[in-house]
Structures are given as C-alpha cells and as structure tokens.
Amino acid sequence: MDAFLPCKIPVPSRKDLIPIYQIDLSLPPSARYVRLAADFSPQMKEIIPLFDQVLAQAIPFGMLRRWIKSLAWLLLRRVYSSEETEEIRGISEASGIDIYFLIALNVFLDSMLGCTSGGVITRPKCQNKGSENRMMHFRTLDWGMEQLRSVLVMLEFVKSKSEEPNKVIARTVTYAGYIGVLTGVRENLSISLNFRPNHTCSTLQLRLHQLLVIFGFRPSISHILRSSIFPPSTAAPQLEEVSTCLRQNKIAPCYLILCDGDSTVVIERDLCSSTIQTSSEFIVHTNNDTSTPAPKEKVQGSREKSPISSILDTLGMESFLKNSRERSACLQKRWDEVKGAQKMKNSGEENRIETLSVKEEVLVQWVKRYPTMNGLSHFGCVMDPKTCEIRWLERGVFWLSAESLMSTGEVDEDNTVLLD
C-alpha cells in the first residue's frame, strides 16, 4: 500500500486531536459545510492527486487514463440525492475544489477501506449516564492513503430550528469533503462499514450497479447509511428495521456492522443477497467472509474479486487478507480470555454467576493495541448508541512497527489490563 505518494502537508501525529465541527441540518444544504470546507481547503487540495494515483493503479494505459479523467470532469456532477448534491456544491465553492473530484471521493471511498468493527458487552467508565452494562461499538479504519489523515474530522449534527436546537442528534467520524456515513452514531443506533474484497454476484451486474451509482442514478451505500443515521421522519427506525432495509436494498459488496446497545449485527452483503450474524455479548468483523473458511489458496469460481481488488492486487491482496484475519483473531482471543477468566471465577464460588463484560478502558486498550490498530489505521473509536456518544476517538500513527504498538499484558480476574 506504499504505492501512493506522500503528501506535502505533514501527516498528523497521534497526539494531534481530531477536530470537531458542528453541522446544522436546519441550514440550506449548500451552506452546511462552508466553514469546514474553507478551513480544510489547503489539505483537501493536497488529496486531489489521489484520483490520478487510483486510476494509475487500476488502468496502466496513460492515454486511457486521460480519457477517463476528462470524462469524469464532464459527467461527475451529481450524486443520487439532490440534498447531498447541493452539499457537495457548497463544499466545492467554499474550498475551490472541482466538483467532479468531490463526487468521485464520495462514490469511490466506501469501496476502498480496510477496517475492524464489532461490538462487546461493556461496563461504562462514566456513571453519570447510566452504569448498566451495554454493548459498545468499536471501530478502526485502515487504508494506505496517508493523505486522507490530514482531513480527518468528527462531525456533530444539530437542528437549530427544532425544539432542541443545541441537541446533538448524531455524530460521525469522516473526512472533510465526504458527506456520506462510514462511521456514525445516533441514539439507539451505531453504524460502520467494512470493505469486502470479493463478491458472488456476476461481475457484469456489479459493474452496472457501480456505474449507476457513479452517475447518480442509484444511491451509494454511504447515502443509505446516512439515511439510517439521519432518518427523514421524526421516528427514527430501530436496529431490526434498519437491518431489514440494509438486507433488501441493492448494495455493492461490503460488510455492515450495526449496534443498538443491546445487540450487534454483522451483515455480509452481496449485490442482491446477504447473510447476517447477531450477538448480545461479543462479535468482531474485519475484511473476510465468515460464511466460508479462509482459503489457503485462491479458488477460482463462484467467489469473484470486486473491481477495486485489482488495485489491491498491486498493493498486496494476500497481505491485506492475512492482516484482516490476524486482526479478527486477535480480538477474538482477547474475548475468549475474558470468558475463560470469568468461568474460572464463577466456578470458584457456588451459586455465583456474573454476566460477562469488559471494562470500557479495557476495550479501548484492545482497540489501541497492535494489530487492531496498526501502521495503516487512520483512527480508532468506541461508540455508545445508548447515549449517542463517541466515547473514545484517537488517530492512528502512520507505519508504526508492531513492537512500538504492542504492550505485553494479561487479563486479571476483573479483566483489567496488567502492563509491564
């Protein structure tokens, strides 16, 4: 993944806080992101070469790339939603960036992210908003495009003309210029999207769907997730209803992770089909299908690679998938250790049965430690859908070694981390 060129703007360090911006949904769409776009204009201009770099990885012929870029300049002028199109036009005017690049960013980015997501039953650290155990949604976002680290933001959404003008109705972690949702939380629902590198539908069907999304005739997955976080009606749909909707819509292959604080759902999506897993204790998903075991050798046949996988082939698909399995196995092992310790504790005393859970600060340590967060992680976070909060958010550090991210430790009987 080091094929992408470094940017001129320094990559932020872990100590640099991710800036928070408030987005007022009561404003006209074109005015909502003006301040953010103006502030981040220099950084956003630095990521424009990403379009050329992605094309170079996917299309080796220079003349064809120039033709496609010219075509993109002519045709990429809108997305499926007129509201989101107006938002992008406002960002374009405030930042001085051509709208075709912002459209490309918004329709391509959700197909190019390696991630770790899941949910675990957690004991909250803060007692003020309820001390009951609940599932929290952990998330890391990994990708080798270090330029995007400089435009990382957290957004808090309000409606100034509502009865509660100062109430934050949703929070997202995203990139300046991106108006869809890849990582977000509102009351009783948190959502994250993971990249899926293969598909079972026909390649022709998938390419047609992607073209319709690119040219604004079908909604992108980030638009559909945004509609779940910012529902048009006052009655926000609950987890089961959102899950059903996400299983029925035509969606490009991906993994969707949803949590309402009581349970966590993982949906493995293909274009016209899906599988689902649910847990009220612990579940983790990275970038591998769980419906079939990970093959030792590449099998030709029903499971075809997605078009974006041609880029990953150049950047190291096998390494990417191996890392994906390691991230999943690492968190599963830590949960299994907690279960084992709890089982021993319960067996030591008659009639004592304690509910499995991990402390919130332990969960944060799980997410921060290698390989869950690694040299490609742009950020890690923990979301609490019961309170509509992002309880913890931290930048990743570019290309750190395993040794510098690892800390030796064990889980004691109260599942606290014992560090050297």
Question: How would you characterize this protein structure?
Answer:
This protein has 13 helices and 18 strands. α4 (62-75) crosses α6. It is α+β, with helices and mostly antiparallel strands and 420 residues long.
Short structural description:
The protein is of the alpha+beta class. Helix content is 34%, strand content 23%.
User: Which secondary-structure class do the elements indicate?
Assistant: alpha+beta
How many individual helices? 13
Main β-sheet description: 8 strands, mixed
Pick out the low-confidence regions. 1-5, 293-302, 400-405, 407-413, 416-420
> What order do the strands of the largest sheet run in, or round the barrel if closed?
1-4-5-6-7-9-10-11
Head-to-tail CA distance between termini: 33 Å
Beta content comes to 15-25%
User: From the alpha-carbon coordinates, what is the Rg to the nearest angstrom?
Assistant: 21 Å
Given the C-alpha coordinates, what overall shape results? globular
- Mean pLDDT across residues: 84
Number of strands: 18
The share of residues in helices is: 25-40%
